[in-house]
C-alpha cells in the first residue's frame, strides 16, 4: 500500500501522542511516527525538524485540546458549586483508567522540562481557576482563591485515586469534590447560626 502524500498536522500529532502514551516520550521517533501515520520519516523531519520539536508540537497539540475541552465544559456547566464539581468531573473523564493516567504522568514530565510547555500549563491553571472561582460567586463563605484551591483538591484527588483505583476515576473525583464543596456549606451554616 502506498504511503499518503499528505496528512494534517492534527492527525500526525494525535499519532505522536498515541506513541508517547504507549512507550513514553523516549520511544517517539520519526521512524515510529512514520510507521504509525504513514508519512515518510523525511517528511516528518521537514515538518518538525528535531525530536524535541516533535515532542513539543505534540504536547502543545494536547494543551490545545485541553483548552478546548475546558472552555466547552466551562461554557456548559452552571455557575454554581455543583457546576464546578461537574466541570472537574468532566475533565477527569479524559484520564481513563490507571494505566492511561500513569502514562500521562510520564508525559507530564516533558511539560515540566520545557519552559514553553510550563507556560501553557500555567495559563491553563489560571483559566481553570477563574472558571471554578466564577462558580462560587454567590457563596458567601467561599474564600478568595477558591478556584485554585479546588483545582488543587482535584489534582490531589486524582493522585490519591491512582494509588487505589478500585472505583472509576470520575466517581472518586466527584465524591471528593462534593465533600470539599460541602465544607463551605457547613461553614455558611455555622456562621448563620
From TrEMBL:
GO MF annotation: an example: DNA binding
Swiss-Prot/TrEMBL keywords: DNA-binding
Lineage of producing organism: Bacteria, Pseudomonadati, Pseudomonadota, Alphaproteobacteria, Hyphomicrobiales
Residue stretches making up the HTH tetR-type domain: 6-66
Protein name according to UniProt: TetR family transcriptional regulator
Any Pfam family: TetR_N
DNA-binding region: 29-48
Naturally occurring in which organism (per UniProt): Sinorhizobium fredii (strain NBRC 101917 / NGR234)
Amino acid at each position: 500500500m502506498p504511503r499518503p502524500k499528505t496528512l494534517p498536522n492534527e492527525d500526525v500529532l494525535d499519532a505522536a501522542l498515541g506513541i508517547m502514551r504507549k512507550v513514553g516520550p523516549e520511544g517517539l521517533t520519526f521512524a515510529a511516527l512514520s510507521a504509525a501515520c504513514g508519512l515518510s520519516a523525511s517528511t516528518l523531519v521537514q515538518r518538525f525538524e528535531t525530536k524535541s520539536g516533535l515532542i513539543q508540537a505534540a504536547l502543545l497539540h494536547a494543551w490545545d485540546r485541553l483548552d478546548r475541552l475546558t472552555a466547552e465544559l466551562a461554557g456548559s456547566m452552571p455557575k454554581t458549586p455543583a457546576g464546578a464539581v461537574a466541570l472537574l468531573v468532566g475533565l477527569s473523564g479524559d484520564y481513563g483508567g490507571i494505566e492511561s493516567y500513569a502514562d500521562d504522568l510520564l508525559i507530564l514530565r516533558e511539560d515540566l522540562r520545557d519552559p514553553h510547555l510550563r507556560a501553557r500549563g500555567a495559563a491553563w491553571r489560571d483559566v481553570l481557576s477563574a472558571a471554578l472561582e466564577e462558580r462560587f460567586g454567590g457563596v458567601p463563605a467561599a474564600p478568595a482563591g477558591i478556584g485554585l484551591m479546588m483545582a488543587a483538591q482535584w489534582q490531589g484527588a486524582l493522585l490519591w485515586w491512582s494509588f487505589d483505583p478500585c472505583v472509576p476515576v470520575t466517581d472518586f473525583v466527584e465524591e471528593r469534590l462534593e465533600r470539599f464543596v460541602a465544607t463551605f456549606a457547613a461553614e455558611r451554616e455555622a456562621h448563620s447560626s
